Predict the structure.
Amino acid sequence: MRLSLSWADIQYAVLALLAGLLLGLISGYWALSIGAVLFFHILRLLSKLARIREWLVEGVIAEATPNIPGSAGDIVKAVVAVKRASDRQRKRLEELLNRFDAATDAMPDAMLIIDRQHRVEWSNPAAKLLLGIDPLQDVGQPVGNIVRDPLIAHYLQAADYTEPLEFSSPGSVERDLMLKIIPYSQQRHLFYVQDHKDILRLERVRKAFVTNASHEMRTPLTVIIGYLESLTSEDSMPARVRHGVDGALDQSLRLKNLLEDLLALSKLESTLSSQSVVEAVDMVVLLEETKALVEASPHYCGQPLTLRCETEVKLVGNITELQSVIRNVVDNAVKYTESETAINIVWKQLSDGSTKLSVQDHGEGIAARHLPHITERFYRVDKGRSRDTGGTGLGLSIVKHVIERHSGKLQISSEIGVGTYVEMIFPQEQCE
Ligand code: ADP
C-alpha cells in the first residue's frame, strides 16, 4: 500500500506529538497527555470530514467550497476539478440536445423512436401533425394503437423493412405518406414518415400531360393513317413514291401503337384497382381467344404455340386488363423467337390454392443485367430489334401494373440463347 501524506499533515501530526510530549513533561502523566492530544487531533480530522460531507451533500457549491489544508483539502480540490469537467460536459450535451431538438422540431417529416414492442419512446411535433401522435401523452403506447392502419400493422408484424411502405393519411384516398423503419440498435427503431403530397401532385400533372398529349395526337394521326392507307391502294403510284408512302404508314402505325400503350398505361395509373370493373374471368376461354389473336397477328411466324390449361379456376379481375397482359407476354414470346421454336402457355393451380400463368419460349433470351429493368417504361434490350417488331417498350410495364392491381406477382427469368420464362402468380383470394 502506498502511503502518501501531505507535508501539512505530517507537520500537524508532529506538532500534536510534540504537544503531547510537552504536556507529559510538565504533568508527568505521559500516556494521558499523549492520548489527550491525539484525541483532539482525531476530533479535528473528523470535523474536517464532516465539513466535506456536508459540502458534498449540498451539491458541491463552488462558492461554499471549504478551505481545508492538508490531504482533505486536496480531496476537495480534486472534487472541484471533477465537478468543473462534468459541468462543461453537461453544458456541451445540453447544447447538442437543444440543437437536436430544434432540428427535429423544424423537420417536416414525422420521426418517432419506437422500442422492440413498437411502443413510442419519443416523437417530434410533425408526428402530431401527420399521424396525430402526442409527444407527451402517447409515450409508451404501441404505435399501431394510435395510427390505426392495417397496412402499418401488417408491415410492423412482417418486420421486413427493406422496402418503404406507402399508406394514406387520414381522409386521403391516395397513398400520400411513406414510412421507413430504420433499426439503429437492438432495442430501438426509428419510425420515419415522409409526406408525399407534393410529389404526388407533380406525378398527377405529369400523367395528365401524357394523357392529354396522347389524346390530342390520336385524332390527327387516325386521319393521317386513313389518307396513307387510301394512297397505298393507288395502283398508278410510281415505285419511289410508294416506298415513301409505305414507310410513312409503317411509322404512323408505330406511333399509333405507342399512343395506345401510353393511354393504356395512364389509364392504369389514374384509376384505382377498386374502381375498375371486375368479374370472375374464365381464363381458359380468354387464353384460347388471345392465342388465336396472336396467331392471326402480322408478326406471328408459325412458332408451335401450345396452350395447356390444367385448371378451370376463374380469376377475379378486369377482363380487358388481363387480356392485355396475356397478349403482351405471348406477343413478346412470338416477337423475340425464331419460327420453329416452341412456345408453351400453361394455366394451373398450385398446391396452396394460388394460380399460375406461365409463358415459356425458346428464343434469343435476355441477358441477366437487363432483367431488373425490363418492366421499366421504354426499356428495350435491343432498340432496333424492338422497333422492327413494332415494340413500344411499354408492354411489360403495362403487364407489371396489371399484375400488381390483381395482387399477383410477376417473375421473369431468362438465359441468352436458351429462352425466356415469364410466370404470373395470383393469390388464392383472387381465384374462384
Ligand atoms: P417491347 O414493346 O419493346 O417488346 P416490352 O416492355 O414488352 O417492350 O419488353 C421490353 C424488352 O424486353 C423488349 O424490348 C425486349 O428486348 C425484351 N423482351 C421482352 N420479352 C422478351 C422475350 N420473350 N424474349 C426476349 N426478349 C424479350
